Amino acid sequence: MFDRYEAGERAVLVHVNFTSEDEREDLEELKMLVESAGVKAVATVSGSRKSPHPKFFVGSGKTEEIEQMVKSQKADVVIFNHALSPAQERNLEAVCECRVLDRTTLILDIFAQRARTHEGKLQVELAQLKHMSTRLIRGWTHLERQKGGIGLRGPGETQLETDRRLLRARIKTIMARLSKVSKQREQGRRARKRAEIPTVSLVGYTNAGKSTLFNRITDAKVYAADQLFATLDPTLRKISLEEVGPAILADTVGFIRHLPHDLVAAFKATLQETQEADLLLHVIDCSDERMHENVEQVDIVLDEIDSGELPKLLVYNKIDNCPEKNARIERDQQGFPVSVWLSAQQGEGTELLIQAISELLAGQMLEQTLMIPPTEGRLRSQLYQLECVTTEDLDEQGNWQVSIRIPQIEWSRLVKHNHEAIESCMLVHQD
């Protein structure tokens, strides 16, 4: 049903340099995507244009060059580093006599290969179906018109219409299932919020080293490889921070420039781990010459999913590839960490990252000392349920002197429900 690759396919790559900055793509990134898909690039055709050609995307001369390259290299597929319209794909396939795929279809195929969980597979299938719905006519051109005349009339619905109806039904079913998964995730997030466990989410450009860093911090064994989109399914692990207590670390899918909108929409449930985070760790490959462009692209996607305003710590990874860089924390004028330089592969600087995370999350913490009389045992019980008691002493009168460390938001909630009791117990207040 879908254009799926088999390992060892031979591909001709097509890359066009446009004068407009918004339409430009990166040829090296295309090669990495093709390699990640398990396809062998046998030739590259490149050129320059002001705007795409309406019929072939490239000019007629360049189309002939692609056709000749396909025949001489015995290629199985032509892969464009751009988004093609269904008509352009069809026209190019007729000329080249082989499959023609665009950048979006290539990314979808990699996602289909990588998805491991039930949710991930559903999300990929949804994105594939939405993308494919505009290209259905390719497979059914011979059935597009009903034959007329005695004995030749059709059943009332063309194959194309039947296919579209089945496709809509399947999309509806998948969206209902994803909605159920989304509700389950939301319940998990609400439970963590009730327990006031902060969530730290790893974000960044694909292949920046998020999963390697995740494994280094949590001792998890999630799949990590030097390829694009090694991680698709969100993975959560509990970590313990000295000054904060338990926290949740989330590893998420990597971003890429011009990420297809269907994919952003399909992976909404996954990206919600980012939207609901207390702190974002923006992992950056400091050895990549396109580092600044990649950071901009991640910020664009974060804005798209309404996460641009969340507290953020920049994590410059792969300093082992940059001999002039060393592990360190960089701070702002108030002394708060703004970036950490480290190597997740070597483990160098990861303790500095833990320290920086603790400092930033602890900035949202409040310290109090309360003198709780025997009559307020219920309040003492609530404090223990919140796991915020650091020390406790009992005096001769039977009063408990309790020191607590609690998130600011949880303290406000506690005061709201126990205003009079807390006011009478307040002994020392430290920020």
Automatic annotation (TrEMBL):
The keyword Calcium does not apply. One of its GO terms (cellular component) is cytoplasm. Its main location: cytoplasm. Its cofactor is Mg(2+). The keyword Nucleotide-binding applies. Keywords: Cytoplasm, GTP-binding, Magnesium, Metal-binding, Nucleotide-binding. It holds the Pfam family GTP-bdg_N. GO terms for molecular function: GTP binding; GTPase activity; guanosine tetraphosphate binding; metal ion binding; ribosome binding. InterPro entries: EFG_III/V, G_HFLX_dom, GTP-bd, GTP-bd_M, GTPase_HflX, GTPase_HflX_N, GTPase_HflX_N_sf, HflX_C. It is found in: Cytoplasm. Transmembrane segments: none annotated. Residues 198-365 form the Hflx-type G domain. Mg(2+) binds at residues 211, 231. GTP binds at residues 204-211, 229-233, 251-254, 317-320, 343-345. Monomer. Associates with the 50S ribosomal subunit. GTPase that associates with the 50S ribosomal subunit and may have a role during protein synthesis or ribosome biogenesis. Belongs to the TRAFAC class OBG-HflX-like GTPase superfamily. HflX GTPase family. This is GTPase HflX. The gene is hflX.
